[in-house]
Amino acid sequence: MLDIGPLELVSLVVLAVLIFGPDKLPKLIQDVSRTLRKIRQFSENAKHDIRSELGPEFKDFEFEDLNPKTFVRKHVLEKDELGLKEIRNGFDFKAEMADVTDAVHGRTPDPVAGSSASSGASGTPDLLKKAEKIQPGERPPFDADAT
């Protein structure tokens, strides 16, 4: 219910009793519920009028389809005529990001594990290992995280 916890609900009820008083509160609740019923009835009447005006060819029309996310999910992702699920499942973003990180840090990827040679078990580089020896006149490796 709109992410309202029990303690918050009790505090709202106590606050409403303090603001409106116990004698006016039932009348206020009736007025609010009557207004909500009228709004729902108006909304249902508008939906019915729109459906009747569109005609029989739009009998399967759902108003939830007007939301772009719902429309795309229903008409593109459910049918999957283009093979989008296969394409989406074919990407391994963690491995690709690890390869980019290795390339930036100048490391070569481990062909057996598919991740960097200095990676720990979690796939993140072990930053506590000893730094490699740098030859005199050689530039140190670029650390993208330090900039």
Automatic annotation (TrEMBL):
State the compartments where it is located.
Answer: Cell membrane; Membrane
What's a BP term from Gene Ontology annotated to this protein? protein transport by the Tat complex
Query: Listed GO molecular functions?
Result: protein transmembrane transporter activity
Q: Give residue spans, biased composition: Basic and acidic residues.
A: 127-147
Give the UniProt keywords, A-Z. Answer: Cell membrane, Membrane, Protein transport, Translocation, Transmembrane, Transmembrane helix, Transport
Q: What is one GO cellular-component annotation here?
A: TAT protein transport complex
Q: Where is this region: Disordered?
A: 102-147
Membrane-topology annotation of the record: Single-pass membrane protein
Please list the residue ranges that the record marks as compositionally biased, kind Low complexity: 113-123
One Pfam family matching this protein? TatA_B_E
Q: Which stretches are transmembrane?
A: none
Tell me the function of this protein.
Part of the twin-arginine translocation (Tat) system that transports large folded proteins containing a characteristic twin-arginine motif in their signal peptide across membranes. Together with TatC, TatB is part of a receptor directly interacting with Tat signal peptides. TatB may form an oligomeric binding site that transiently accommodates folded Tat precursor proteins before their translocation.
The family assignment reads:
Belongs to the TatB family.
Q: How does it assemble?
A: The Tat system comprises two distinct complexes: a TatABC complex, containing multiple copies of TatA, TatB and TatC subunits, and a separate TatA complex, containing only TatA subunits. Substrates initially bind to the TatABC complex, which probably triggers association of the separate TatA complex to form the active translocon.
Q: What's this protein's name?
A: Sec-independent protein translocase protein TatB
